[in-house]
Amino acid sequence: MNVAHTIQTTTKTLFSFEILPPLKGKGIETIYNTIDPLMEYKPQFINITSHREVYDANNNRVRRRPGTVAIAGAISHKYNIPVVPHILCGGFNRKETEYVLLDLHFLGINNVLALRGDALRSDEPYTPEPEGNRYAQDLLRQIADMNKGKFIGDTDYNTSSPTHFSCGVAGYPEKHYAAPDLDTDILHLKEKQDAGAQYIITQMFFDNAHYFNFVAKCRAVGITIPIVPGIKPIGLKNQVDVLPKLFHIELPQDLDTALRACSDDEQAKQIGTQWAIMQAKELIAHNVPLLHLFTYSSAKQSVEIAKAVF
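^ that's the sequence the OP posted. Answer follows.
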């Protein structure tokens, strides 16, 4: 199924969610336990995040998650549902990117989310890999070439079979942290559309006014592709400080005050769930094409949200 076509043609608000690959040492059952309770709500697709490997000063690998290709294949096979693995610029050169995309293509997985990826703390400002794609626009152009049967090192395109990737990209209602302002960031997003992006999934936000303003500004500069809101239910009390710092976003004062008054994480989770439900209901009332929940490794809150709004 072409995810972009589904989003572009729907007449009602659809549902999707995003998961994290398990950490090293944990099995695929941890992912299945997250996905199983959400299947009742008929998700249109499942996004799979991707992380670059991290090494310490002695070149020892200190972070490793199982490969995106393997997880995407396992989920697609078990649930017979479209999966959308994240493909990053950061940490990969163009040849490595082509290999990953070809592996996905051979598995029949033809939907991806094209991302620049965040800089490592030791790599600020962001630096691309040698012979790698610098920005998501560059990655989109590489994928567009592959969709035409053009591969790295090929001299005779007539002998190559094209891929059939459909590409989404990320958008930032409160601007990307590296952008000087929202208007400039949106112009870069227009470049992603021009390079082949077919839909946008937003970064999390907690004030729907940011989303509505973002959509209006995007439309004003000629961005016509669907803009899907990404919703993250707060599940821990400390996220009142962690999320704004990590994702460069703002929490509405009412939410901030309520979370700081919580005595424990369970109270914070209840408030976070109800806030997300309130956001979701308003977004559905405004006919958004799809609600994308950042579920990550725990389905409980996403199930409560889906049950309340679908």
